[in-house]
Amino acid sequence: MPKPQEIAVLVVNGLRFDDWDFVMVRRNWGDAFAYFQFSAAERDPIFNVPNTFPNWLKLQWKPGDQCSIYLAGELAITGFIEVRQVAYNANSHGVMLIGKSYSAQAAKSSVDTPDGNFDNQDLVSIASKVAGAYGVGVKTIGGVDMTPFQQCQAGKGETVWDFLERLARVRGCLLAADAFGNFLIIGDHDYPAVSGLVEGKNIKEMQCIISNEHVFAVHDVHGHGQASDDLNGSAASEMKATATSDVAPLYSKLITPMEESVRTIAELQHRANFEKLWHDGSQVQATITVQGWLRDGQTLWHEGDQVHVYSPMAMLDMDMAIQQVVFTQDDKRGTITTLTCINPEMLLGRKNFNVEAPPAVPTSATVPTTNPPTTISV
Prior knowledge:
Layout: E1 8-12, E2 15-17, E3 22-28, E4 35-42, E5 66-71, E6 74-88, E7 93-101, H1 103-108, H2 123-132, E8 137-141, H3 160-170, E9 174-177, E10 182-186, E11 193-198, E12 205-210, E13 218-223, H4 234-237, E14 239-244, E15 253-257, H5 265-280, E16 284-291, E17 294-295, E18 299-300, E19 306-311, E20 316-330, E21 334-342
Parallel strand pairs: 8-10, 11-19, 13-15
Antiparallel strand pairs: 1-2, 1-5, 3-4, 3-20, 4-7, 5-6, 6-7, 9-10, 12-16, 13-14, 16-21, 17-18, 19-20, 20-21
Helix pairs in contact: 2-3
């Protein structure tokens, strides 16, 4: 008899089914939706009793059917079935169901307003309007910049996700989705570490990458503002702000054009700081597999949470943020969870680990004769 903490249940139209051969649920702070995939196979010949398919009466579900998914007794997703695949022969019958959380419908749809104009409105208000038209809610996490956009226009046919993600970058926020039909607007926040992942204890597998591939020493953001009595000429048309990396030992520069017009240099500076945080945060990524679906045997692992990762082999002794959680179950690897852990600042979380300070960044492309590598404290 299966253990309760290893049972996956799909409920559709009041009917539940839990006899699955393969289960996969993916939740990611960065995707526009959560995703699931379930498959099952009939183990007995399906033509023994004419016109009788007792096990499969429960699985006559189709794209568009709303559903709820429970893992280890805890609600993991509310969403809908998007794809149904069936394969059968005289001796077997298999069904695969693939689906997403409700936010997927809004994410793929176009912004639908009479004129696409959102002048002098803030990010949360705009998101609530364009996502709400498709039944998707908006939640905020941390401190979200509520400065209104002086000028803001959705492109004709532009999708809701692309439009909001563009505006979120301007305000130094991340756009994500939860597993229950909401968009998330994520600002600076502080999550304490909720658990530990320790080499030789609860880490089943790990792959760790430490890389400066996407790290830049200097981030310039160029933009423009609408001309006024207080802001005009080159001061309005050639605005610039700069942020300097905390981790890049070699000189490099990324110039980013501001997506929307701005009123002040402070808005450009916020955008530059966001680019710096995002790229600096790409330095470390660890993909960690643990046994089971429950954190500390009590609750499902959650994207957005911070954990302390200790792995001398990977040179890690630091708080990291969980960007993605993938719950799986099959007859080969059993019941496992795969966590994609990254620097907290990539999710705008407070950084709580030490990176050795790099040498001063040169002001030109001259390459220093010696460049000690960035190291992570262990």
